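I'll show a sample.
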Amino acid sequence: MDHSASPRNIDLLLARYAESHRNHTNEIIHFVCIPLIVLSLLGILWAIHPVVAIAATLASLYYYTTLSRQFALGMGVMSAVMLGLLALMPDMTVLPVSIAIFVVAWIGQFVGHKIEGKKPSFFEDLRFLLIGPLFVLSFLYRRMNLAY
């Protein structure tokens, strides 16, 4: 199948997401805050039970596989590292640390969008909550000259 004739769904989603992430400061904030939000969300789920965090990870990886196997692989590696970090943390610290990171990182996101002058993409489409991590990963992939 020739993807050059028509854009892939992942390319369309990333392009739509990028429309409200053009300001360099906002991009930098997102590069820091999005991975922290993913880590903190996994931490909150981990605090419920590690199986819940793993199940959520597998569900998101399934969705990512429907968009791009290369992105699913990258997100799988990132998720494995994050789950590994959570497993190393003392149980009593996972929830409070995760909640603190979650709140601070979301404040950062909204500051970035204030600077950008545009509302977050997920206000229009909740899928963009899952596309944000791929937006960050796409910069790494392009820097490393990896296809997605």
Q: What stands out?
A: The chain has a mean pLDDT of 92.
